[in-house]
Amino acid sequence: MRIIKTTLAFLLLGLIAFTACRKHSNATGVPGDAEYFIFGSVGGFCPTVCAQYYKIMGNKLYKSYVDTASHIQYTDSPMPADKYTLALPAMTNFPAWFSLHPNQDVKCANCADMGFIHLEYKRGGQVYQWNIDYPYEGIPAEIQAYIDQVSGIMSNLQ
Q1: For a tag site, which of 23, 37, 95, 147 has the least CB within 10 Å?
Q2: Once rounded to an integer, what is the mean pLDDT over residues 100-116?
Q3: Which has the higher per-residue pLDDT, 26 or 91?
């Protein structure tokens, strides 16, 4: 009986150690078969629509050149490879939270003309998109670090 208790205790400790040391992440990345991934922002309190979007497609990064949120176009020539490398974590660190909450505005995107971050990807003919309202206080904790990262990436791309 004592051997069984000792064995069970060691198994329990081993299980705890195994699960406690495993790295946990909520990042799933954008599905690998996505046709494109777009991230960008629309500024608030602008006399015109102040929009800046970036599109990752075919292992290249493209910048928008029309500053209206209703009709975004992208340059024909990709940005330099170092800019693509800088932008890639926006796609690869994409949190699983978004997959569980498809096509949502987080908080009240641009309700008070404060601007928002836009995320979008297309997969299998279906477009998935999200708008995350500025300021970021009150957004779900699962996406806070990611939104901070995307904001930093956009600052570094300009």
Answers
A1: 23
A2: 73
A3: 91
Environment class of 26 (CB within 10 Å of its CB; exposed 0-12, middle 13-18, buried 19+): middle
- What pLDDT, on a 0 to 100 scale, did the predictor assign at position 9? 42
Q: Is pLDDT above 80 for 68?
A: no
Q: Is 153 helix (H, G, I), strand (E, B) or coil?
A: helix
Positive/negative CA dihedral, 137, 142, 145, 147:
negative
Per the DSSP assignment, residues forming a β-bridge with 53 are 40
Which pLDDT score, from 0 to 100, does residue 25 have?
46
80-84: long-range pairs with CB below 8 Å, 24+: 83/157, 84/56, 84/59, 84/60
Strands 115-123 and 126-133: antiparallel
Positive/negative CA dihedral, 79, 85, 89, 92: positive
The class that CATH gives domain 36-157 is alpha beta
For the chain, the domains span: 36-157
Instruction: Report helix, strand or coil for 112.
Output: coil
